[in-house]
Amino acid sequence: MSKQEPVTLAQDGAEGCCPTLSTAPMSEDRAVGLAKVFKALGDPVRLRLLSMIASREGGEICVCDLTPAFDLSQPTISHHLKLLKQAGLIGSERRGTWVYYRLVPETTDKLASVLARPAASVPATS
């Protein structure tokens, strides 16, 4: 994903409509975009980083608080954060010498909606 523009998760069909895997075949363009985002999540370090960012009270975290949690160099952590940002999963803001990261909930919501089954197809439990 390096040297690429940020991923946008285009929607198939009508605007505002997010077909799930089980409701409509996915277009090639949408599949390519989604695959890039899922690829960004396909690394344990990036999943942990995303979890740390998403679960942080206040909704954002300084890179200075992320780096010590890993037995990796700062440039490696920065590379992983860059890939998450390119995938549209996180946003960032520089404040002085530090960068603060926050989750982009619209992206994770779209991913969740693609994987969700329609309510009508979920078996009832008693």
UniProtKB/TrEMBL annotation:
Keywords of the record: DNA-binding, Transcription, Transcription regulation
Pfam families given in the database record: HTH_5
Domain of life: Bacteria
Keyword Transcription in annotation: yes
Ranges where the HTH arsR-type domain occurs: 26-123
SUPFAM superfamilies with a match to the protein in the record: Winged helix' DNA-binding domain (SSF46785)
InterPro entries noted in UniProt: ArsR-like_HTH, ArsR_HTH, HTH_ArsR_DNA-bd_dom, HTH_MetalResp_TranReg, WH-like_DNA-bd_sf, WH_DNA-bd_sf
Matches recorded under PROSITE patterns: HTH_ARSR_1, HTH_ARSR_2
Protein name: Metalloregulator ArsR/SmtB family transcription factor
Organism, scientific name: Streptomyces salyersiae
